[in-house]
Specification:
Blueprint: E1 4-7, H1 11-23, E2 27-33, H2 40-44, E3 47-52, H3 63-73, E4 77-79, H4 89-97, E5 101-102, H5 107-114, H6 116-125, H7 141-151, E6 155-159, E7 168-171, H8 174-192, E8 197-201, E9 207-216, E10 221-233, E11 236-242, H9 249-266, E12 269-279, E13 282-289, H10 296-303, H11 307-315, E14 332-339, E15 351-352, E16 356-357, E17 364-368, E18 375-376, E19 383-391, H12 394-407, E20 409-410, H13 417-423, H14 427-431, H15 438-447
Parallel strand pairs: 1-2, 1-4, 2-3, 4-5
Antiparallel strand pairs: 6-7, 6-8, 9-10, 9-12, 10-11, 11-14, 12-13, 14-19, 15-18, 16-20, 17-19
The chain binds adenosine-5'-diphosphate.
Length: 449
């Protein structure tokens, strides 16, 4: 196992990783920008190193400073958390060149999954169901028309280099397609410096369902079930649950095994998430994230498995702690991402938290890096914390969530707590009856005069 792990991140996820390291007896190094001197991850780490000024590109994204911090402190591994450098193949490569372990997959696997066309091709080769569409980039109009006619309208045009849901255009007819192709290309060129696009069947009312996998890098792979993250605003997940209200045990086992086998066959090392759109009983691969996800605690709640422990183990070559047959799914878990934003307008609300009280009790977990008196800096994402609630079934989980939301106090700044207080009482949510467009429609309707 490692002696000392440097955590190349901030906020709740830095703290989350730090906790796992402590439990395994591993010393921790926090890095921080000058804006984060009083952050919780800095206070709780064994050592800390300031790596630059507030803007992320000068600190949390500054590879040279982070490598230097490893050398100064003698850290033998780096955990990247999520975001920042977690899916940066060059970072993984540079660390390996310095004989520092990157706690994640190989640079090669990060690169494959970072390229949308390559990822889809790899997924299809490994037996994962993909969205019907073009094999690769589409260059001319004739080819585009042929492919669209083949898969049937509506279709969606996506930028190969796209991300964050940007650079997508839907075409419902052949006339639409000609215009959409041109605009998608020019937008992709301007936004990503690469105007290559590809075509897929457009799914009208899908759910977002993702499968958690872990591979040991030596040919073993397991799945830890799925998460349903259909409740999204502007492609950002807001509420996540495990299991998905839409799947039964047989479907869970089938899609889980497909993903676990793919991971094993790839020789994938580390935690990963295979993301799907799900419609009419069919799964359609959209991408694979080669890192820990924000919403990983719902999986931990129903499996009792610490995913960061597993990441540390496989990175150190110690293998997985569990076999597939030992992984079971108990009850139901829901996570709410509570942001420092106005619950109606979603305007960011940085500032000082004056009072802070978190709920507790059986089945309740709060992952957060804030405290009373803490000032949320304006430079980074607006996550205050994640409330994760577990119950023996979905009804118990929802009732528990409702009482936790009533207990939660964040004063001094605005938060999205009121949004969750509304959602937990909504009939569609209670029935688990929602798709990826549900939340935006609900927000539009509730803000209408
Ligand atoms: P990005 O990397 O930009 O986030 P994704 O491929 O993950 O791109 O897609 C982001 C979102 O766009 C999906 O979660 C879904 O809401 C929508 N989307 C992507 N592909 C399709 C599709 N074929 N049909 C319908 N919606 C889609």
């Amino acid at each position: 196992m490692f002696n000392k792990v440097l955590i190349a991140n901030r906020g709740e996820i830095a703290l989350r990783v730090l906790r796992a390291c402590k439990e395994l007896g591993i010393a921790t190094v926090a890095v921080h920008s000058t804006a984060d001197e009083s952050a919780m991850h800095v206070k709780l780490a064994d050592e800390s190193v300031c790596i630059g000024p507030p803007p992320s590109r000068d600190s949390y994204l500054n590879i040279h400073q982070i490598v230097a911090a490893c050398e100064i402190t003698g850290a033998d591994a780096v955990h990247p958390g999520y975001g920042f450098l977690s899916e940066n193949a060059k970072f993984a490569e540079i660390l390996e060149a310095h004989e520092i372990t990157f706690i994640g997959p190989t640079a090669q696997h990060i690169s494959i999954m970072g390229d949308k066309i390559e990822a889809k091709r790899t997924a299809a080769r490994l037996g994962i169901p993909v969205v019907p569409g073009s094999e690769g980039g589409v260059s001319d109009e004739r080819e585009a028309k042929r492919i669209a006619a083949d898969i049937g309208y509506p279709v969606i045009i996506k930028a190969t280099a796209g991300g964050g849901g940007r650079g997508m255009k839907v075409a419902r007819t052949e006339d639409d397609l000609v215009v959409a192709l041109q605009t998608a290309r020019s937008e992709a060129g301007a936004a990503f410096g690469n105007d290559e696009v590809y075509i897929e069947k457009f799914l009208g009312k899908p759910r977002h369902i993702e499968v958690q996998v872990v591979g040991d890098g030596k040919g073993a792979g397991v799945h830890l079930g799925e998460r349903d993250c259909s409740l999204q605003r502007r492609h950002q997940k807001v509420w996540e649950e495990a299991n998905s209200p839409a799947l039964n045990a047989k479907q869970r086992k089938e899609i889980g095994e497909i993903c676990a086998n793919a991971v094993a066959e790839m020789g994938y090392r580390g935690a990963g998430t295979v993301e799907f759109l799900y419609e009419n009983g069919e799964f359609y691969f959209i991408e694979m994230n080669t890192r820990l996800q924000v919403e990983h605690p719902v999986t931990e709640a129903i499996t009792g498995i610490d995913l960061v422990h597993e990441q540390l183990r496989v990175a150190a070559g110690a293998g997985l702690s569990v076999r597939q047959s030992e992984i079971t799914f108990e009850g139901h878990a829901i996570e709410c991402r509570i942001n420092a934003e106005d619950a109606r307008t979603f305007m960011p609300s940085p500032g000082t938290i004056t009072h802070y009280h978190t709920p507790g009790g059986l089945g309740v977990r709060v992952d957060s890096g804030v405290y009373a008196g803490y000032r949320i800096p304006p430079y980074y994402d607006s996550l205050i914390g994640k409330l994760i609630v577990h119950g023996r079934n979905r009804v118990e989980c929802m009732m528990r969530l409702r009482r936790c939301l009533d207990e939660f106090v964040v004063d001094g700044i605005k938060s999205t707590l009121p949004l969750f207080q509304d959602l937990v009482q909504n009939i569609d949510i209670a029935n688990g009856d929602y798709d990826i467009h549900w939340l935006e429609k609900y927000l539009a309707a509730s803000s209408a005069p």
